[in-house]
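Components:
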Amino acid sequence: MEDLKLTSLKSAGGRRTVITVDDARIGGDFVVIAGPCSVENEEQTIKTAHKVKEAGAHMLRGGAFKPRTSPYDFQGLGLQGLKILEKAKRETGLPVVTEVTDPRDVSWVCEYADVLQIGARNMQNFSLLKEVGKVDKPVLLKRGVYSTLKEWLNCAEYVLAEGNPKVILCERGIRTFETYTRNTLDLSIVPSVKEVSHLPIIVDPSHGTGRLSLIESMSLAAIVAGADGIMIEVHYNPCEALCDKDQAMPPDMFAGLMKKLNVLRSIMNEINQCKENETSEQRR
Ligand code: PEP
Ligand code: MN
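Structure:
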């Protein structure tokens, strides 16, 4: 990791990056991003946004440009979707995280997004990375399904090298021989990132497992692993979801998860205090 000039922990003199988006401090507090896989219509997005806000989410997610495996699947609403997200933000106050897939769209998508998401399939789209490196918006960089930590950090390096220091890494599962889960959520990457980089890292257990029944336990595991937050797909009526139906979490289940996360959050504060005490004793 020696050649990582901007993303290594060493390059930042050991100081960790905290990225502020309205009231959320990614890398400072544990941040929860929730919302539908894709913006399908106004009712679906606004209702879901109110539900996740009530449960305590800090940011709203929703795709207006959907990179789908099949060209015949729902591709997202584009500009219309971004306008719906803008309205959801106006009503709930939640900042918006949304994906950008084409370098030509970056500047105008910035008018609607608080955080620009680069999807797993585009992790190594270098022209897209350079473009988001030129704007003043945080970038949520998802890990590619076949990517090593070093390849991933090199992609973050592209964004930083263009002048944008605000990169949030997001582990969303990698491709392994396992087929029971949609992907294999690599939680060991969380403390690994913390060892080598100053950038914050969040976990997406929705795409990481692809199974509703597994998302809660993996969310709780993510906070224990030291993640700076999670991103969860929530739909006010999962049976009707146009995209990623099997992993769409209903709002009442999300509210239950938020309660459990709050319990763990205070336990983790105590654990982190113990770790700090150990470190200062070792220094003495
Ligand atoms: C998403 O979060 O909407 C998404 C498409 O995820 P990924 O790029 O991780 O597949
Ligand atoms: Mn999805």
